[in-house]
Specification:
With 348 residues, the protein is α/β, with parallel strands linked by helices. It contains ten helices and twelve strands. α3 links the parallel β4 and β5. α4 packs parallel to α5 and α8 packs parallel to α9.
């Protein structure tokens, strides 16, 4: 896993601008319940079984989180055939296909499934619709772990639709038996544009039983829409391979921000981004720990943006139980963190 070194860029300067300098801090932001569950699962596996514990792919798409877990003894691998036979392996929050589960079993691995329950819901929908011989149009991005896992549940029935444009060209066997599902971390607006284009071509297209795009993705997009309408600049904290973080940049630009950038760390914020900017919007993707946001706010404060106003559009209190293997400690007692433990970290 390549690490992103923190640069040693000089502190941001407090240059004059027209108007009062301020930060609009989006809320909700940062860790969602599924990410919290997955990260705590790796930490508890290390506590329970000792290092090393292997993790297939990045547990969540954030380089800081991955690096911290590596320092604690986690080893990240691309595939389960890299894991020594009999070792503990954690499946990431993005989910895996049945083929991966079987491969782990064949190697005698002790697997801990940290798949987000909302992703698991989409997997179950794919299985159900495939059983009823529907063709499944999976709206998402080819190559993303979540899409690979969902498609792997019913490979003969799934076609991935990467964009609204692809909706205009995708072909199906039977237009009367087709349903759409989606990757959970997409832009709500773009997904619905894709669905609308698909429905124009396939009027009998069925909807999933419930919305596939996760509550956290939707909430973060709603919050940044409100912030972007007033901000000249939006800074999104999140990693480049985080789909929901990348979408937040796109949504900010679409809803009024004159400029929007994604950073992993505060040191990546550039002085020229702030030229002439009075109002800066700040948010973070669903796999970003709050400490990274605080570092960005501290850097901005040094540049005169000490006035921070939180813009809250929803409250989140959802928590998910840890994987069953980790709900008790080594003595068989229920662990205090059986329900995750850090989903309220973004509270001000």
């Amino acid at each position: 896993m390549p690490r992103i070194p923190r640069s040693r860029r000089a502190a941001l300067q407090d240059n004059p601008v027209d108007g009062h300098k301020r930060v609009l801090l989006a809320a909700p932001r940062g860790y969602c319940a599924g990410v919290d569950r997955a990260v705590v699962a790796v930490e508890k596996a290390l506590e329970r079984y000792g290092a090393p514990v292997y993790v297939r792919k990045q547990i969540v798409h954030n380089i800081h989180v991955v690096t911290e877990l590596e320092d604690k003894g986690a080893i990240f691998v691309e595939e389960v055939d890299e894991v020594p036979e009999g070792a503990h392996v954690v499946f990431s929050a993005h989910g895996v296909s049945p083929a991966v589960v079987n491969a782990a079993s064949d190697r005698g691995l002790q697997a801990i499934d940290a798949t987000c329950p909302l992703v698991t819901k989409v997997h179950r929908e794919a299985v159900r619709f495939a059983r009823d011989d529907f063709e499944i149009l999976l709206i998402g991005h080819d190559g993303h772990e979540e899409v690979e896992g969902t498609a792997g549940e019913a490979p003969d029935h799934v076609t991935v639709v990467n964009s609204p444009e692809e909706a205009d060209t995708v072909e199906v066997r039977d237009p009367s038996k087709v349903v759409w599902l989606s990757q959970t971390t997409l832009s709500v607006d773009e997904t619905m544009e894709t669905v609308n284009r698909l429905r124009t071509r396939f009027p009998e297209l069925q909807n999933p039983p419930s919305d596939d795009i996760c509550y956290a993705t939707q909430n973060r997009q709603v919050a940044i829409k409100k912030v972007a309408a007033e901000a000249e600049l939006v800074i999104v904290v999140g990693s480049a391979n985080s789909s929901n973080s990348v979408r937040l940049v796109e949504v900010a630009l679409e809803y009024g921000a004159k400029a929007a950038y994604r950073v992993d760390y505060a040191d990546e914020v550039k002085q020229e981004w702030l030229d002439g900017v009075a109002t800066v919007g700040v948010t973070s993707g669903a796999s970003v720990p709050e400490v990274l946001v605080r570092e960005v706010l501290e850097a901005l404060s040094g540049a005169g943006y000490a006035d921070v106003e939180e813009v809250r559009t929803a409250e989140e209190d959802l928590m998910f139980s840890l994987p069953k293997e980790l709900r008790q400690d080594a003595a068989g007692q229920r662990d205090a963190r059986a329900l995750g433990g850090r989903v309220s970290e973004t509270a001000s």
